[in-house]
Design brief:
6-stranded parallel β-sheet; 14 strands; 0% helix; globular
């Protein structure tokens, strides 16, 4: 899939899936993404991804930074910081460099912490 238009999009741009919207299919964005509606499909965002308190995702997520306030059912790969807010629900495995789980968040699955450097075992 090729992106049309500006080949160097502004990183401050945010695509919004509003609370009245439901999407079935995969999403790919070079920018930031906020989900307040329902998505059934895999999501890849090169920027910041936010799932609002009423947001719902059934699918795998791959993004640089992720904040979850709603419900996620799927595997998450986060290259930097993942935040599970106080009323969020995550059912699935996750990999993140930094993981923050607020009191009241529900997480069922396995987690792995990574960094950009290879771990050296001697």
């Amino acid at each position: 899939m090729k992106f049309k238009g500006n080949s160097n999009p502004n990183n401050d741009e945010v695509s919004i899936i509003s609370s009245t919207m439901q999407i079935q299919g995969n999403i790919l964005t070079k920018g930031n993404l906020r989900i307040d509606g329902k998505v059934k499909g895999d999501i890849k965002a090169e920027g910041v991804m936010t799932i609002g308190p009423h947001g719902y995702v059934e699918g795998n997520i791959d993004a640089t930074n992720i904040t979850i306030g709603g419900k996620i059912f799927g595997t998450i790969i986060c290259r930097e910081k993942l935040i599970l807010e106080d009323n969020s629900q995550l059912k699935g495995d996750l990999t993140a460099k930094i993981l923050v789980i607020e009191e009241g968040a529900l997480f069922t699955g396995r987690s792995a912490m990574t960094n950009n450097q290879e771990a050296k075992v001697e």
